[in-house]
Design a protein that fits this description.
The protein has about 170 residues and is an alpha+beta fold. Helix content is about 30%, strand content about 40%.
Length: about 170
């Protein structure tokens, strides 16, 4: 696949078993790489929202959107317009703290990045950070100097800004 820009696709699907597998399998069969995918319930119990992040050129993205839209369990698919959406990601980062100075330094960085410590042990701190990928990457780069013991990232979740909504028309 030709390298392009990171694009975010919002997909409303039926909230039932197997839907995530069929969408992910479609990407695999078409040799498209998913950078991140998040799935969760919406305000309607029977509908789930998938937020899929891909790195693709326009032609490839159009092809992906059309392929996804053809799936039986897919109700609506839209690319979120660049700059016209809000997005967040959560990361849990377990950082090695070997002494009190290291512990203090990590705590100071946590404050600067407006994140929070969610677990403390004698040898580590676990930090929760929320924000855009750039913020999380910047924090991670700082934490690498102390030693990252474990990392879990949710991937991007996003919504269109303002009054625009991706929803099923009644």
């Amino acid at each position: 696949m030709e390298s392009g820009k990171t694009k975010i696709i919002s997909v409303l699907v039926e909230n039932k078993p197997g839907v995530l597998h069929s969408i992910a399998n479609l990407f695999r069969r078409r040799n498209f790489n998913i950078e991140s995918i998040t799935v969760g319930a919406t305000q309607q119990q029977d509908i789930a929202r998938m937020t899929i992040t891909v790195n693709a050129d326009e032609k490839t993205l159009d092809q992906v959107v059309k392929q996804v839209a053809k799936q039986i369990d897919v109700l609506k698919v839209e690319e979120l317009e660049s700059g016209n959406f809000v997005m967040r990601e959560i990361a849990l980062i377990k950082v090695e703290v070997t002494d009190s100075k290291t512990r203090s330094d990590v705590i100071n960085f946590v404050k600067v990045f407006r994140s929070r410590i969610i677990d403390i042990s004698p040898d580590s701190l676990t930090v929760e950070i929320t924000g855009g990928p750039d913020k999380i990457n910047a924090f991670l780069n700082l934490m690498k100097t102390f030693g990252v013991l474990e990392l879990a990232r949710t991937g991007i979740t996003a919504l269109a800004r303002g009054a625009k909504s991706i929803k099923i028309d009644d």
